[in-house]
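so im writing up the methods section and need the Hydrophobin record in one place, dumping it here so i stop losing it
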Amino acid sequence: MLRSSVLLGVASFITLAAAGGSSQCTTGQIVCCNSVKSADAVPNLSSVTGLLAAQAALLGNVGVSCSTITVIGEGKSCIASQTPLCCTDNSYDGILSLGCSPINALLA
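--- predicted struct ---
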């Protein structure tokens, strides 16, 4: 029971922070990713994106297994094990998101 309450609280906080902190993501879209890695640490990145490794490295971090956050009450929110990110390229069906920066939920 306590675990469920804690998870709900964390998920709600992240959702509110991400929705309220949209000023932290002015150049991309807010997504929840299962992991975030540097471009050189993602296997088969160039075969999925068509980018050369050097090109992808210039884009920053890569979100792996991502879902989009929408307005509260209308869509998904991050769960406790996911990382909220602001990503500039989400055109890979949630498999990968490129150009990602972490969103600081405490600043929202």
